[in-house]
Design a protein that fits this description.
The chain is α/β, with parallel strands linked by helices and about 325 residues long. The chain contains 10 helices and 12 strands.
Amino acid sequence: MRKIILGKTGAEVSAISLGTWSYGGANKQGEIPVGWEGQQDNDSINALLRCHEIGINHWDTADVYGDGRSEKVIGSLWGEIPRADIFLATKVGWDIGDYGHFYHPVHMRKQMEQSLINLQTDCVDLLYLHHCNFGKQDQYLNDALETVRRFQEEGKTRFVGLSDWDLFKIMKYIDATQPDVVQPYRNVMDDTYGPSGLKDWIDEHNSGVCFFSPIKHGLLTGKYTEPVAFGDGDFRTNVNDFTKIDVIKKMQENKTLIEDRFSDHPYPVMRGIIDALLIDTSSGCVLLGQRNIDQVNTAATLGGKMSKKDVNWVKSLYCSP
């Protein structure tokens, strides 16, 4: 597995890193589905062990994934995997708790301490602010920033990160936050990394960057042949494209084209849609969900260099008409 330096953190991490949202299983916040159905802890554990074996050494989780289930699965493995081998990231911000806002400092501390218990570690390598909703008139912004920096001073996290689905929103808060690492939503269908100004900021400040949802929850693989109805507690029920037959047919058409162009690769579609994201960053990685050993073995073949010509061709397939 090719390694990259994650910006000014200086950490050497795998170009294809591990996202563990699915390890939390199906879940809801109120009536809103926020998890992934059908995940078994045994599959998660075996995937983690295989990741360590092949050199996928950056694992990303969050307090809200299964209300701590994802963190607990990871924390259960330090008897088999040296903690020092893994660059470990978690997040705070999507569990609203009892304090009226995600970023109330008392709530943030409660969540941080619980995450450390779940992960069975004294310190994480990276703690993200999970989103950029800081309340009316940003009333919790200073509290959030002061709290995460205090966690650094106390040795609870080495580095601080910032994440959001909306890259323009990240840009609104990035100067105030000065994150060591940024985690934006990005894939070949939904890509505002350049237009938002985030790419230029990352390059100028030598921050690390980790792209999440690179296959748009599986949609971009072209494996679906008809509209999908996911189970209770599965986040993908919120993604309208899974119900649109024209989108699904387009993904299948793209799959056929990519399989022909990258026929020398064992997983040509994944080669096309994942490796295309790495061309414009030297300090970045892709966070890819890997729910079982087979998916880890697929990830092991990715992260290679791709020509600009191939990248532009892949991206052109997914541009809206």
